[in-house]
Design a protein that fits this description.
There is one protein chain. This protein has helices spanning 12-15, 23-33, 46-62, 66-80, 86-92, 97-117, 140-149, 157-161, 174-187, 191-201, 234-239, 244-249, 251-262, 276-282, 302-315, 331-337, 339-342, and strands at 6-10, 164-168, 203-205, 266-270, 292-296, 324-327. The chain is of the alpha/beta class. The chain folds into 2 domains: 6-20 and 131-208 and 243-342, 3-Layer(aba) Sandwich (Rossmann fold); 23-117, no CATH class. Helix 14 (276-282) links the parallel strand 4 and strand 5 (292-296). 43% of the residues are buried.
């Protein structure tokens, strides 16, 4: 049971547990997928062929020459070779709308593909079970499901969910797709009822957008079923993604993100890379209420982990060393190992 107002900040390291691509892996897929020089050769890939078809469609929608859009994809491909993430690459190219459009198309293509290939499936193998494959306890969303439901009567699950905000910097919809099934397992309710509870009570924010709105979710964003590799409305989905600069320019959205951080008594960072541009989205000023902060630094060098600790002490305005807890564990291990704290 979550008793304390908590905000989870989730990055690519957490989704990687479910076999979603890391920042580096997504860049590598974009580099290979947009290698159109291989299109008519024996080394041509299925991804490359599908992306090329979508480039033709994108050119038609933007009323541009195919050659110009393909050239923009090549510029994106080159920049990805030096980039740390696709988000920072798109920020570098905010002067070139065609490159940004190609980047959003690639994100939508590869993240939709990743959903279809992940260990989180469309439906459970057996009704009433979870749609997870593999060692389910070693996924952060499973641990989150336990934290949310443990010891909570059905009549109070809405109140518990209202204690939680999830700021998800990933493009996939794994949290939204999984949690209703966790409620079904925990309370024996119908899936539609569980989806309604999540839709009404849990605040999930994707600063950069997501690859579509699940059919049961509220809103006006383009819909896409879970795990559809090639949604029919892929271009509409891509168009509503937000680059760092676009999100920063949206003052209302930026205010809501920062308010979720500033109002939390506990901040938990899972698989978050602490890229300065993303950190800027979270903090406007140093926090004044001295929250507890829990950070997973799995995969970070000791130098970067120390830098993150120093950064967060300053941004969160931490007055006591006890307020900052840093774990080298994976996202799921952090939620498991600090479950008593998180339920307090």
């Amino acid at each position: 049971m979550l008793r304390t107002r908590t905000t989870l900040i989730v990055g690519a390291g957490a989704s990687a547990e479910l076999q979603f691509p890391t920042n580096a892996e997504l860049l590598a897929r974009i580099i290979q997928g947009y290698d159109f020089k291989r299109t008519n050769s024996e080394t041509s890939t299925r991804d490359g062929q599908l992306l090329l078809r979508n480039i033709y469609k994108l050119a038609e929608k933007l009323n541009k020459k195919v050659e110009d859009v393909a050239a923009a994809a090549e510029r994106l491909r080159n920049a990805c070779r030096l980039g740390r993430s696709i988000d920072t690459v798109l920020e570098q190219y905010d002067h070139d709308p065609l490159v940004v459009a190609c980047g959003k198309l690639a994100i939508t293509f590869f993240m939709g593909q990743a959903e279809s290939r992940s260990n989180l499936k469309d439906i459970p193998r057996v009704e009433g079970e979870l749609p997870l494959q593999g060692k389910i306890a070693e996924y952060w969303i499973y641990q989150l499901g336990q934290l949310i439901n443990s010891g909570v009567p059905r009549s109070k699950i809405g109140q518990t969910l209202e204690q939680l905000t999830i700021i998800n910097f990933n493009y996939d919809r794994s949290v939204e797709h999984f949690l209703p099934y966790a409620l079904v397992m925990a309370y024996g309710i119908e899936l539609k009822e569980a989806q309604q509870v999540i839709a009404e009570k849990l605040d999930i924010v994707h600063p950069h957008g997501s690859v579509g709105r699940l059919p049961w979710q509220k809103g006006e964003a383009p819909q896409a079923e879970w795990g559809v590799e090639q949604p029919w409305n892929i271009h509409a989905i891509a168009a509503q993604l937000k680059s760092l600069n676009e999100r920063s320019a949206d003052r209302n959205a930026l205010r809501d993100i920062r308010l979720s951080v500033a109002s939390a008594k506990r901040l938990v960072f899972l698989g978050f890379g602490f890229q300065p541009q993303n950190v800027d989205l979270l903090f406007e000023n140093t926090l004044s209420h001295n929250p507890e902060v829990l950070i997973s630094t799995y995969g970070m060098s000791s130098g970067n982990a120390a830098t993150v600790a120093q950064m967060i002490r300053r941004l969160a305005g931490l007055e006591s060393a006890d307020q900052l807890m840093i774990s080298p564990g994976k996202a799921w291990e952090v939620l498991r190992d600090y479950s008593l704290l998180l339920e307090s």
